[in-house]
Amino acid sequence: MDFSNKVVLITGGAGEIGHAAARAFARCNATIVVVDRDSRGEAVAAEICAAGGEARFIAADVTRSQDVERYVNMTLDTYGVIDCFLNNAGIEGRVAPIAEYDEADFDAVMAVNVKGVFLGLRYVLPVMIRQRSGAIVNTSSTAGLKGASGLAPYIASKHAVLGLTRSAALEVSPHGVRVNAICPGPVDTRMIQSIETQLNIDDPLGARQRGEAAIPTRRYSTPDEVANVMLFLCSDLATNMAGSHVVIDGGRTA
Ligand code: NAD
């Protein structure tokens, strides 16, 4: 894979999947723009620069349209183009049954996982339509394909990401812009640990063991395995893929 002279914008780039993606694209010579509300994104950009790559960090909250407009404009001011966009920031929210779910917690999940993804598309798509080129990968989840007890807002938000992906692909594919999604099952990151702990506060390790036992490959995915699929979807190996989603779950939903 060669992403020389390509500019890759990654939201949630301070998180574990975003960090793995930043490293993977940088190894393929891409210029990386790390966007996150967490200042740990600075270290991700610094790591890429220390290895001889080109990267910068932009602190932004993906739920605020001013911030999204700013990260898009700062990227264009610095590098002139946006070739790839990993619309990846997300939160798991609280684990609780719908009958007990707090309205403010529901709004928080929707704000990041649905509005944040929408706003990313809203401001990046006009750039890519003007360029007549670009590849976008929205991070959905196997939570976008089926239900789960206790996780209804997260589940609903990831179903919405697939709806946004399909609609965007229909709108912009004729302009040379490809929009696809990934649906990882459990990935070994902070987020899955948080969900396991909330599901089973007394025995999070037991929750993990049961989760892994239910996967045909008997393990969670690694952030690098997710990043590899992002690379593929953005690459010239996937030039007629649009509006689709790729599942990375060790066969769990098979
Ligand atoms: P993570 O918590 O390590 O990373 C998420 C990142 O998003 C964090 O750096 C966080 O600061 C950032 N973020 C959250 N809200 C933000 C906001 N309002 N503005 C800017 N940045 C914000 O988790 P991860 O596992 O790396 O998750 C990345 C994506 O993958 C998420 O969309 C998640 O839903 C999805 N996903 C994760 C798993 C899993 O098991 N870990 C499985 C399927 C899908």
Plain-language structure description:
By secondary structure, this protein is of the alpha/beta class. The chain is 47% helix and 15% strand. The chain contains 8 helices and 7 strands. A 7-stranded parallel sheet has the order 3-2-1-4-5-6-7, sandwiched between helices. Helix 5 links the parallel strand 5 and strand 6 (177-184). Helix 1 (16-27) runs parallel beside helix 2 (41-50), helix 1 (16-27) packs across helix 8 (223-234) and helix 6 (190-199) crosses helix 7. The longest helix is centred in the middle third of the chain and has 29 residues, at 103-131. The two termini are 29 Å apart. The protein binds nicotinamide-adenine-dinucleotide. Residues 12, 14-18, 36-38, 61-63, 88-91, 112, 116, 139, 141, 184, 186-187, 189-192 line the site of nicotinamide-adenine-dinucleotide (NAD).
Set out the fold topology.
Blueprint: E1 7-11, H1 16-27, E2 31-36, H2 41-50, E3 54-59, H3 65-79, E4 84-87, H4 103-131, E5 134-139, H5 152-172, E6 177-184, H6 190-199, H7 204-213, H8 223-234, E7 245-248
Parallel strand pairs: 1-2, 1-4, 2-3, 4-5, 5-6, 6-7
Helix pairs in contact: 1-2, 1-8, 3-4, 4-5, 6-7
Bound molecules: nicotinamide-adenine-dinucleotide (NAD).
Quick description:
This protein has 254 residues and is an alpha/beta fold.
Shape: globular
Average the pLDDT over all residues and give the rounded result. 97
**Roughly what fraction of the amino acids lie in strands?**
15-25%
Helix content: 40-55%
For the terminal residues, how far apart are their CA atoms?
A: 29 Å
Largest sheet: 7 strands, parallel
Annotation, overall tally of beta strands: 7
Helical region count? 8
Radius of gyration: 17 Å
Question: Which sequence of strands runs across the widest sheet?
Answer: 3-2-1-4-5-6-7
